[in-house]
Specification:
By secondary structure, this protein is of the alpha+beta class. It contains eight helices and 20 strands. The strands form six sheets. Strands 3-10-7-8 form a four-stranded antiparallel sheet. A four-stranded mixed sheet has the order 4-6-5-9, with no helix packed on it. A four-stranded antiparallel sheet has the order 13-19-16-17, covered by helices on one side. Helix 1 (103-112) crosses helix 3 (142-179) and helix 5 crosses helix 8. It is elongated and about 75 Å long.
Length: 395
């Protein structure tokens, strides 16, 4: 049933034969999973798989050969590749593969297919076996399929390794945020940077703050103006994430007139700590530069007492679990909890007496954040590389 012959834009060295167009149903058969109720056991040797991954164990295998799995209902765009025995429930299809195809090639092809465009349901995303069987794809020789499959397997393994490194560094930071700040009722942290000793000092949060910049409720219309297409970016609770500013969300700009009328005399400066008071509550970031920003909805900024506190330490202090838990206990509201300036008056904090220790802690976590950011960019680069290869190495 050859209708045309094609070749991809990028080709592995040593291959030159044209690719052949075929229906998936000619090279594989989609099979339905079964209920796990009768076969599930606590310490089974085989996995029971659903669209979200392993959900149990069994001593009975539904299928024991190489197979590529895809969701029938629910998550329909997350394929799995199996070379060992398994059981699938009825929301997850598995495939019997023809000897003419490489399992790794089919798995890679399944990652390229835009499954959601094949969903014809009006509710929960769903696929049918006939829909999958009727998909038309292009296939090289099995030898080339194997080479392509192994290439993408190596790419996937590299991405998985990078993701684990990224997640491990994030977990390390979470652990250090807990252990490098004294727990409630304690005056020293569990882990201390070298060269520092002595008790930390407990005080009211506002004792360390000179003033708060808060334009709660202010809008352009209330000052007789409107947002512009460009100019000074407005920072709202949607822009302020934990540790960084997302410049791509909720973009609103003000011209020079609006900026001066809104921010006049209370301009934000680089390093200044921003805090979201609600929706969401408790995100913390620092002003990245001195370009000038408009402080918008549900976000406040702190002017610190420089003899008592550093901006970098404050940014970490507010993100520490012990402080965040106290803030959460003071918050009010239903699903969109928030804290007010009034509730912040009840916040107690414990800080190092030496500004040098505060500076060291701030710099330590900045370096850790930089590492996390670099790892995230590397992961994004690898993901982009994979998507580019999927686009150019398949017809």
């Amino acid at each position: 049933m050859i209708s045309k012959q094609q070749t991809p834009k990028i080709r592995l060295t040593g291959f030159s034969e044209d690719w052949v167009e075929q229906k998936l149903g000619d090279v594989l058969k989609i099979k339905s999973g079964l209920s796990q109720k009768e076969i599930e056991v606590a310490d089974g040797i085989y996995p029971i798989l659903a669209t979200g991954g392993e959900i149990g164990r069994t001593n009975t295998a539904l299928y024991s050969k190489e197979s590529v799995l895809i969701g029938r209902k629910g998550t329909i765009d997350k394929p799995y590749y199996m070379t060992t025995p398994f059981w699938t429930v009825d929301t997850l299809f598995y495939s019997e593969l023809s000897e003419r195809v490489s399992g790794l090639f089919i798995f890679t092809l399944f990652q390229k297919i835009q499954w959601r465009k094949l969903d014809t349901s009006t509710g929960v995303p769903s696929l049918t076996s006939s829909t999958i069987h009727n998909i038309i794809a292009n296939f090289p020789t099995k030898t080339e399929q194997t080479a392509i499959g192994k290439l993408f397997q190596n790419v996937d393994q590299t991405i998985a390794l990078q993701r684990r490194k990224h997640e491990q560094t994030q977990m390390l930071k979470k652990s250090l945020l807990s252990k490098m700040f004294p727990q409630k009722g304690h005056s020293q942290p569990e882990i201390r940077l070298n060269g520092f000793s002595g008790d930390w000092v407990e005080s009211k949060f506002f004792d360390n703050i000179e003033s708060i910049i808060d334009f709660r409720g202010r809008t352009p219309k209330k000052i007789g103006l409107e947002w512009s297409e460009k100019g000074y970016l407005a920072l709202s609770a949607l822009n302020v994430k934990n540790g960084y500013i997302d410049f791509n969300l909720d973009k609103h700009f003000g011209n020079e007139e609006l900026y001066q009328k809104w921010m006049g005399g209370k301009e934000l400066v680089v390093g200044q700590v921003l805090f979201t008071t609600e929706a969401p509550m408790g995100n913390v970031a620092q002003v990245p530069d001195n370009r000038g920003y408009i402080l918008s909805q549900r976000t406040i900024a702190f002017n610190i007492r420089k003899e008592l506190l550093t901006d970098d330490f404050l940014a970490i202090l507010l993100r520490s679990p012990v402080t965040f838990n106290m803030l959460e206990s003071m918050s009010s509201g239903g699903t969109a909890k928030g804290v007010s300036q009034k509730s912040l008056t009840n916040l107690q904090v414990v800080t190092p007496q030496q500004l040098e220790e505060q500076t060291a802690i701030g710099q330590f976590f900045k370096r850790l954040d930089d590492t996390i950011s670099i790892q995230a960019k590397q992961l994004k680069t690898l993901d982009n590389l994979k998507q580019a290869l999927l686009a150019k190495m398949f017809v």
